[in-house]
Amino acid sequence: MAPVWACLRLLGLLAVLTSAAQAQGRNQRGGEPGDFDFYVLALSWSPGFCELDGDRDRNREQCADGAGLRFVVHGLWPQNERGYPSDCGPAGRTPSRIALEQAKGLFPTESLARYEWRKHGTCSGAGPSDYFADVRRARDRIVIPPVLAKAERNQNWTAIDLERAFVAANPGLRTDMMSVACKRGVLQEVRICLSKDLRDFRMCQEVDRSGCRTRDITVVAPR
What we know:
Mean pLDDT: 86
Number of strands: 8
Shape: globular
Radius of gyration: 19 Å
Number of helices: 9
Largest sheet: 4 strands, antiparallel
Distance between the termini: 64 Å
Low-confidence stretches: 4-8, 10-25
């Protein structure tokens, strides 16, 4: 008969494998376009992103000295209550130059706009032009807290205080309708949940729980 500790260890391993399988199932590649519950608008804090990943060639345009970017759109992501669809196709469909005009001034680079369309926009149920127009509508819906919109030097925050600053600047938004993402204690982005018609903020437990757990977060100043 196997010892108790061995049985417990096996049960723990099975639980991890089951959880991983469920997560993989929830994050469905090649889902049905338009079949999702709500949107997540991910606003990347460009100085924080560049602090940790700016040395890569593909980020040179975004992270060049003097670029001075602050919050930029990372993406507008179709999301389900649990998991999300991605790469919904059809394969090879690319946004036209006219469609990409809608993305100007939102994404830090055109290559990111193309990538976001391929991975997330194809799941929206809209064509490229309409999807990028929706990205702009979502971005225009959000007011950046003045203390971040005008930041000129590094700041130290907690995740909950960052969320509260956005709540104060955006009537109807609550802390359980968003999350703050960080990497190695540096602010990376703010993710805000919106209804499918982009008119309202909405609660999103899975997104909220995925937020940064580091107590102190550095908001790196633009350069």
